[in-house]
User: What shape does this take?
Amino acid sequence: MRGFRSDFLRVLAERGFIHQCTDPEALDGAAAEGRITGYVGFDCTADSLHVGNLLSIMMLRWLQRTGHRPIALVGGGTTKVGDPSGKDESRRLLSEEEIARNRAGILRSLEKFLDFGGGEALLVDNAEWLDRLLYIPFLREVGRHFTINRMLAFESVRQRLEREQPLTFLEFNYMVMQAYDFLELSRRFDCRLQMGGSDQWGNIVCGIELARRAEGRQLFGLTCPLLTTASGAKMGKTAQGAVWLNEDRLPPFEYWQFWRNTEDADVGRFLRLFTELPLEEIARLERLQGAEINEAKKILAFEATRLAHGEEAARKAADAARRLFEGGEGSVAALPEVTVPRTRLAEGVPVVELFTLAGLAKSRGEARRLIRGGGARLDDRRITDEHLMIREADLGDGALKLSAGRKRHVLVRAA
RNA sequence: GGAGGGGUGGCCGAGUGGCUAAAGGCAGCAGACUGUAAAUCUGCCGGCGCAAGCCUACGUAGGUUCGAAUCCUACCCCCUCCA
Assistant: This one.
């Protein structure tokens, strides 16, 4: 990495955050000379952010840590328009209430990573200005700086056109809205930098051009790479869906597990991107070979969970995992629990039903297949009889551990 | 408005009267091997059922037939070309 003078860009470069930057030298100069303000936008399409947003969040966090001012922009306004980037179909339009609910959830995600206290990091909603725009004045002020010729050349638009998928005029305006956001933030807060995923490059550049044409101001854009795992899968997506940052969407234990199960080849890269451990420490962990690399994965899991859920939750998750996977008795308190009424247990509950009650199988048939395949266990003993009945006496000291495979466990209690 | 093509399981995609709960692939789940990794191999993969079997399912609604994802009719939706 060609030696950056500013801490901010040096850290981002060393850790592998930088994909593209509009004018690295000038941005470096500005960040070295004084405090700059930069932002990332998050649309309110779900009630929690997820691991796919984490790179952007970490960039804001580093911006703050290196002495600058981050702005988290929630897209209360742009969500009403819908970003067509990377999508073949337009998204269902969200209602005002849904957007408000999602915005609240996104704040909870962000608060963990950024310090909004004392006027440090700022939280702004673009509905503040977008909702109030007047059509004709807006077209005259902003619209005249955009040419359709240029807009049609943008990747997000071209893709839709080439695949002959419809692109509504509403969505077509998304990039104009995002460009205007940047201009507005630069006016209100002297914000000079916009960051985001590489898919946002076009939209970011749009804003930079608008500011240059409209006011002759130089703004900067910086994108992070689109992350894939070493085996090529999109980062942060699992079969169950996105890896959410909010604990009501994904318990900290599951979050910890997600990081713990990182592929060997990704460990070093992820440590640099998703933890704040010193680079020397990471280099050491990265050198671990064979089974020893599990130590590095546990540290990755702990650090990543600490950022999203706090130290306490991270410790608990690590603890629960240790008991679960590395033998030893003791309590298994961190496992999800279900309760079954004593009256039901009195007459006996078929194991297959217990598996569905515990959420470990979608149907009794699935539970039966699980048993036939040898993947079902009861207090760590393989279940061979699919007709087994469970009674209160089987709960022993109060709880029964049901397992589907090595990793999914549920405690059953009587109530 | 006219002509043509198409809608099959989570996705892709075969199937053009019974042998079809529907080939194959992907994804998923489990087992083996391991290191809670990757790769590989094996099994499972609509619901209910111990089973026989029953139910639901090939855009929607009817119909023909002993029997339909497959044939007919109407409707809905998508795409292509022309105007």
User: Anything to note?
Assistant: Residues 403 and 409 of chain A are 4 Å apart (CA to CA). The mean pLDDT of chain A is 86. DSSP finds 19 helices and 15 strands in chain A.
